[in-house]
Amino acid sequence: MNNKKSSPPTRRRPTRALVAAAAVTFAPATAQSQLGSTVANPSARALVQASSAALPNGAVTMRSYVDAGGTTIHEYATRTGLVFAYTWDGPTSPNLRKLLGERFPTFQSHAVTTDAHARASLHAGRVAQSDFVVEAGGRMRAYVGRAWLPGAVPPGVSIDDLR
Fold it and tell me: Signal peptide position in this chain (predicted)?
C-alpha cells in the first residue's frame, strides 16, 4: 500500500514571456489609414487605444495611438478626412510600409541611396520627393520621425507645429 500523502494539484503561474505574448496577440487592433488616404474608421475595440482631437484652428484633426512596439503615432487629417501627415516617437521604429502605403517603395529606394548620409549624421535621414517627405532618425529605444504630403497641408498649418 502506498503511504505517501496526496497533495492537491498546484496551479502553475504562466511565465512572463507567455503573458507578454498573450497581451500582444489579444491587444486591440487599431484601424490605420495610410498617407494620402482617407481616415479609417476605428472599430470600437480600436478606440480603447486611440484618441483623437481637433487642433485649435479646426482645419486639422489628430488621432493618436500606440503601436505594438510601444511607439506613439499621431495621424493628422484635413476636415475632409485626407491623411496628410504622421509623426512618431517611441522605442521602436513604426511600420513605415503601413504608414506610407503605396509611397513606401519610392521611399525605400531613395532611403537606400542616401544611407551613407544617414550613417554620417547619427542615423537621421530625409527623403524628399515632390509629393511626400519623410524625416526619421534616432537611436536604440528612441526613434522619432514624421512623414507628410507637402501639397495637402492645409493653409495656415505648419509641419513644424505637428508633434
Answer: 1-31
- Please name which of 32, 134, 142 lies closest in space to residue 85, comparing C-alpha atoms: 134
Task: Give residues with Cβ within 8 angstroms of 143, minimum separation 6.
Answer: 71, 88, 89, 90, 91, 92, 93, 94, 136, 137
| Nearby residues of 153 by Cβ (< 8 Å), 6 or more positions away | 84, 85, 159
**Residues in contact with 124: Cβ distance below 8 Å, sequence separation at least 6, in sequence order:** 118, 135, 136, 137, 138
Give the model confidence (pLDDT) of 29-77 as tens digits: 345 689 998 887 654 334 335 677 777 678 899 999 999 999 999 999 9
Contact residues for 44 (Cβ-Cβ < 8 A; gap 6+): none
Amino acid at 151: G
On whether the CB atoms of residues 49 and 65 are closer than 8 A, the answer is yes
* Reported pTM: 0.70
